[in-house]
Specification:
By secondary structure, this protein is an alpha/beta fold. Helix content is 46%, strand content 13%. InterPro entries: NAD(P)-bd_dom_sf, SDR_fam.
Length: 291
Amino acid sequence: MDTTGNALPVAIVIGGSGGMGQACARRLATDHLVVLANRDVGKSEAVARAFAEDGLHAVAIACDVTRPESVAEMVRRSAELGSVDVVALVAGLSPSMADGRRIMHVNLVGAATVVEVVLPVIAPGGVAVLVSSVAGHRVAAGSEVTALLDDPLAESFLDDLEVALGRELTAMEGYQFSKFGEIRMARRLVTRFAERGARIVSLSPGIIETPMGELEFRENPKKRALFQRSPLARVGTLDEICDAMEFLCSDRAAFITGTDLLVDGGLTSAVEFDLPDPSGKPIDATLVRNS
């Protein structure tokens, strides 16, 4: 309930207990009852208590996106709390966190599972936001691979993908392909959401100051080199991603659906057009920590 006694709309945040997910959940909790859907329900409960201390409304519900029955139970319980107006899929694994198949299973198969389960209950005027990545814009997938990525709930999806590639899926490919698939998912499902009177979009952050981003920066030399190409010569902040999320979930974005919002400081454009490093300076890890 809000201060007037009216029921708050529900915002489900998948992965709302840490990093970017928690930041987005906190922002949405200013005018929603937020469901912190996370496999580690104990962590979600701690976050919910912290939110409550700040006058925000949140509940923790266990959810493992790799288990359809877990997703179905989470959505059922969420719908009992009120009108499901927002579903934000922020959870995901980066290349330094798992192998290619596990990354693909969590990032793309998990996202597709959530979307399919939530579609019948999302409220008219509601929105699903798939948090993708700048990496999804840097994929050159052939037609066979793309067709497979467009059907991630197929029973033999991961096996078929590796057959098409002719080898095992690497962690980097798992990440890039999964994020590419999420962007396409928002476009492919636009009509099905419109039939509910709802919207679906993807949001692609660039290099953002998060614990996951710092891990990737330490472990991945290619990411450090990529950072140096950024026209704005800095990383993005969590507040900037939350601003984009808040906008996409608001009535101000009521005519935005079936598309991707790229929030990357111009990095994708710099890579596409092979623009020079704007700083002319060597890579310095402290730039990421201090920006």
